[in-house]
Amino acid sequence: MRWLLPFMHLLLLFFQLPTCKSSSISHLFDSWCKEYGKTYASEQEKQQRFKVFEQNYEYVTLHNARPNSSYTLSLNAFADLTNHEFKAKYLGLSLSASNLAIRLNSEQVGIEGPDLVKESDLPSSVDWRKQGAVTEVKDQGSCGACWSFSTTGAVEGINKIVTGSLISLSEQELIDCDKSYNDGCGGGLMDYAYQFIIKNKGIDTEKDYPYQGREGTCKKEKLKKHVVTIDSYADITAKNEKKLQQAVATQPVSVGICGSEKSFQLYSGGIFTGPCSASLDHAVLIVGYDSKDGQDYWIIKNSWGRYWGMDGYMHMQRNTGNGEGLCGINLLASYPIKTSPNPPPSPPPGPVRCNLFTYCSSGETCCCTRDIFGICLKWKCCGAESAVCCQDRRSCCPHDYPVCDTKRNMCLKWIGNSTVAQPLAQERISASQVAEAFL
């Protein structure tokens, strides 16, 4: 019977393999949770997320084992989300059927801006990051406001090119205040955002009107801060990739793409070649183009934080031979036009007026602590610079930690690609301590 022992041993190992594999992935999941600061409300939810993580692990492993793929995938910050959940949370391009039909008409003549680089003068590669015309990668969180990040990125770029100054601009102002056609975290379109900036005669800075990862009430006093202006904007004719290249050689360009594919969700590096459809659902910024090993690509700046892709960027295949472009990138391109200087800096602000009888000192924020039927009966002042008033009406948070967590008595900010704001332990700020600034 000794001859049966090796066979039985192999049989036992065979049945143990799934358990060993599952255990290995479980350890990987625990490490992943620590890396990305993921916590779950219950053990049941954690197990559900683990199952999704395990499925994404299989998907990533199979893709990366392909010998001829030009790009890689990874278990990034979205690895505990199904593709359906991911699409519901992290996109946000909103385009009506009528507008799309017009833009997809290949006979349409685009509204071209002045002084595009001529086709005969196109450089072999462009990277506006090297010219200092691109701000740091930002993170939209689970607010579907990609359109606002694409818009500010394009305006930041042309402002640097024209004035020499790189200023990070406020997506939150667009989310809160641009309501004629756009819908905040519910989606929007870059053309409408350009129209808003033009009509408003400018846009405020990120520092003065910070991002909160959710919709809020429009701060009308901030609308008067016209730090950066644009004169008009241009739409590039759909399916004209050469014209798109000319525009990108001139300045960063906003584009719509299909960003909902699972391979896009888990992308980590290399030249992305799809497959993906041309159903536009996400907005990004093209900041350049180049070629590698005979393969041409666009340099894409995304708004999902530095924990996605190559520190927040993607190389996407161009010159595919398809007029729509990979992921529809040639279908909805536009850019702002700026020829005029920005208005001079505003004089030092005086006291902030809350109502006829209440004032706060310069730089402070008026917070309503008691109202009735929308009319504030009692005001207090938050001394933190460009502060955010919390919903508990007793606390406020500074602009760089703008998310109020009154249950845990903290002010938070977004880090990485986390679906919720995370506190930084070494920089944790107490909402109750900030509230002491009330006068």
UniProtKB/TrEMBL annotation:
Residue ranges occupied by any Peptidase C1A papain C-terminal domain in the UniProt entry: 122-337
UniProt KW keywords: Cell membrane, Disulfide bond, Glycoprotein, Hydrolase, Membrane, Protease, Signal, Thiol protease, Vacuole
Domain Cathepsin propeptide inhibitor: 29-86
Primary residence: membrane
PROSITE patterns per UniProt: THIOL_PROTEASE_ASN, THIOL_PROTEASE_CYS, THIOL_PROTEASE_HIS
InterPro entries per record: Granulin (IPR000118), Granulin_sf (IPR037277), Papain-like_cys_pep_sf (IPR038765), Pept_asp_AS (IPR025661), Pept_cys_AS (IPR000169), Pept_his_AS (IPR025660), Peptidase_C1A (IPR013128), Peptidase_C1A_C (IPR000668)
Ranges for domain Granulins: 354-411
CDD domains attached to this UniProt entry: Peptidase_C1A (cd02248)
GO cellular component, one term: vacuole
Protein's cellular compartments: Cell membrane; Vacuole
Signal peptide (from-to): 1-22
Similarity section: Belongs to the peptidase C1 family.
Gene3D superfamilies xref list: Cysteine proteinases, Granulin
Stated name of the protein: Zingipain-2 isoform X1
GO MF, one example: cysteine-type peptidase activity
GO biological process per UniProt: programmed cell death involved in cell development; proteolysis
Organism: Sesamum indicum
Lineage: Eukaryota, Viridiplantae, Streptophyta, Embryophyta, Tracheophyta
Domain of life: Eukaryota
